[in-house]
Amino acid sequence: MADANIWDDAWGDQEEDWAGGGGKAKRLVPRGPFLGISLYELGPGNWEIFHFHHGSEELLIVLRGRPTLRTFDGSRQLEEGAVVHFPLGRDGAHELRNDTDELVRYLVAGTRVTPEVVEYPDLKKLTAQSRLKGQTGEPLFVIHDLKEDQ
């Protein structure tokens, strides 16, 4: 992979944002078996959907701006330079949104496992993912609707 720069404004082609938050993302290391790190940018009013992982821990580092972090314990605005750890399961649930008029830029690094399950409490959905080829010959990415009583 070519060298990356966290201040570069070239974002390249964006993957589908099926959750609808409107942010930008780019991987800083190729998809690997163990480590992932991506750069994100949220314009005013953009957000990253509330979610938590069953297999991958994550670490957030705020580079620019003051994003609002939501967890199951509530919401708080983060400062530039803030570092937040998201452990596995419900304790690591998080959403980031930009409630300001300035751009927000941050890094998310994490362990990467396959397969992985990610829950989206606000959407009442979960995804099951695997980088391995499934029965169709393609990597697995399934969106499952949860019942309202779950």
Structural overview:
This protein is mostly beta strands. It has a domain of 90 residues: Jelly Rolls (Sandwich). It is built from no helices and twelve strands. The strands form two sheets. Strands 6-5-8-3-10-11-12 form a seven-stranded antiparallel beta sheet, with no helix packed on it. Strands 1-2-9-4-7 form a five-stranded antiparallel beta sheet, with no helix packed on it. It is globular.
List the helices and strands and how they pair.
Elements: E1 24-27, E2 35-42, E3 47-53, E4 58-64, E5 68-71, E6 74-77, E7 83-86, E8 94-97, E9 104-111, E10 116-120, E11 125-133, E12 139-145
Antiparallel strand pairs: 1-2, 2-9, 3-8, 3-10, 4-7, 4-9, 5-6, 5-8, 10-11, 11-12
The stretches of 5 or more residues where confidence is low (pLDDT under 50) are none
Number of helical segments with 4 or more residues: 0
Q: Helicity level, as a percent range?
A: under 10%
Could you give the count of β-strands? 12
Tell me the major beta sheet. Answer: 7 strands, antiparallel
Supply the CATH class of the domain at 24-113.
Mainly Beta
**CATH superfamily placement of the domain at 24-113:** Jelly Rolls
Helix/strand class: mainly beta
Residue fraction in strands: over 45%
The mean pLDDT is 91
In the sheet with the most strands, the strands line up as: 6-5-8-3-10-11-12
User: What gap, in angstroms, lies between the N and C termini?
Assistant: 42 Å
What's the CATH architecture of the domain at 24-113? Sandwich
* CATH fold call of the domain at 24-113: Jelly Rolls
| Rounded radius of gyration (Å) | 15 Å
Shape: globular
H/E element order: EEEEEEEEEEEE
